[in-house]
Structure formats: structure tokens, C-alpha cells
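Thread: "does anyone have the structure for this chain?"

Original post by V.I.:
We have the sequence but no experimental structure in hand. Need at least a predicted one for the grant figures.
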Amino acid sequence: MNYVTKKTKLIAVVGPTASGKTAVAVRLAQRLGGEIVSCDSMQIYRHMPIAAAVPTLDERQGIPHHLLEIVEPGEEFSVAKYCALAHEIIADITARGKTPVLCGGTGLYFSSVVDDLSFPEKSFDTKLRRELEDRIEREGGEAMLRALREVDPETAGRLSPADRKRIVRAFEVYLTTGTPISEQARLSRAGGSRYDLFAIGLTFADRRTLYHRINDRVDAMLDAGLVDEARTSLASPGRTAAQAIGHKELADYINGLCSLEEAAEKLKMATRRYAKRQLTWFRRDGRINWICMDGLTADDAADMAIKMLTEGKNHD
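Reply from O.Q.:
Generated one for you, C-alpha cells below.
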């Protein structure tokens, strides 16, 4: 028997923010008898459904969604904890005869799950992490990223100064183990994945279409009460919540330092830059089958994905 057939089947829908991942994943889950496992580093947190674009009950269309709003904003959480939970849930979905559909735009979460990445326990040091978080607050993301290039140029090349949490984590791994996180990932990946993966990525031939969608989403978030959500978040303890895209960009407006229009434009720009980084991450993964969403509905994209799947365009 082919070894691949022994692996757990895993469907994945990835891509940049505002590309329509949830709608496509829901359609696929409906057709494949599946349940959705979130792959979004912000949607795991409670009290920020607007900024994190947590799918509403209507958007979920009755499909069970897992790993949404499970952690308090001030609670310690890591990619290792996410992977442990995701693996457990995927196994449970499969054991019940359902198809797991991984859906989200956090590249590190996706790669860590599908490649079964793991890091030794000694690479986690809470005290050191807090010291590094204080350092990046003082020196800024740009300075810390330059320093990271000296010890782990491969990881630094994938990050931007805005990726503060990942910069801190890369330093933490290097300083506690003496080995760059990129090398740790290679060693872990060498063991192979436990999944028979079929992944699609959503994109747009005309980048301006995606940017228009992002701008429209930000406007809709503001209409839905994003300012009040951000005001509550920024007034509460918890570094992660305060750094969420959609909250920190409104801080100046909330503090009376700029107009709402200026803050909204800042948020749109930050989101467009984030989408660009997401695309850069996922484009490096040759296993992803890309679907251009220009002029397509979620049903159209699901049709294309099912056709690809039946034609055997999956990669493990």
C-alpha cells in the first residue's frame, strides 16, 4: 500500500486577508463533509471579533469551526500550543469520519501544522521572552530585525519590522538553543508530515482588486463598531491585543491625536502591507494550488478546488 494513503487527509485554504478564504472553506466543508480548523493567529483571541474578522454564525453556514476565540488577550500563547491543539482537533475530526479543512492566513501556523514542526522544550524561556519584548519596545522592530540578520539571516529575510512577535520568538530560540529557528525548522521538517495535504491559495491577478476589498473591509469593520472594540482592547492589559492590526492603528484617534479618516487610512495601509507579506510567505510553498479569484464566486472557487483534488493535484 502506498505510504501516502496512511496519512490523514487535510484540506487547506490559505491566502491574504480579505481574499474570501472563509466563504470558500465553508463551501468545501459543505461538499466534503468537513469541519473547519482556524489557522489565524488573531482569531484565537477573545474580545476582538471585528479586528480579527472572526466568521459570524451566518458566515459559518452551520459548519463547525474550531480554534476561534479560545484564549484571553493577556494569556501566554505560542505556535507550539497552537500546533498541539490543531493536531488534536484534526485527529478528532478525522476519527468522526469528517474532513478537516484548515483555513487562515497565518503562514507560520500553516507551515508548522502541515510540516509537523516542533521545537525542543528548552527553546521556550518566558523570562527571556519578556526581556526581548521590552527590548523591541525600546529599540523598535527595524533595529531588532537588523540584529536578527546577524544570527539568523534566513528567518530575518522572511520577516518585516512589523512582525515583532516573530522577531522575538526567533531571538528566543537562538539564545536558548544556540541554533537559529530556521535550522530548527529544517531538522523538524526532515521527519516528514503526518498529513496527505491538498492546499489551495486564493489570490487576484490584479493586486488592486485585493486592495479594494481590503479597503471595503476596513470600512465595514468601522461601521460594525471597531473603534469601541479597539478602545476597550487598548485600555486592557495584554500585549497581543494591543498589537492587533485594527486596534493599534486607531490608538492615535482614540487618544485625540488624529482624525478618524487619518486613522482609517493608516489601518488600510497596514492591512495592505500585511496582505503582501502573507502572499510572500505562501508563494514560497510549492504545494499550494493557486486560484485567481478575479470574477469568481466562492462556489466557483470550490468547484475548481474539487476538480483539482479529484485530478490528484495534492502534495504531501
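V.I.: this helps a lot. The first strand starts at residue 8 and ends at 14.
O.Q.: and The beta strands are 8-14, 34-38, 65-66, 99-104, 195-203, 288-292.
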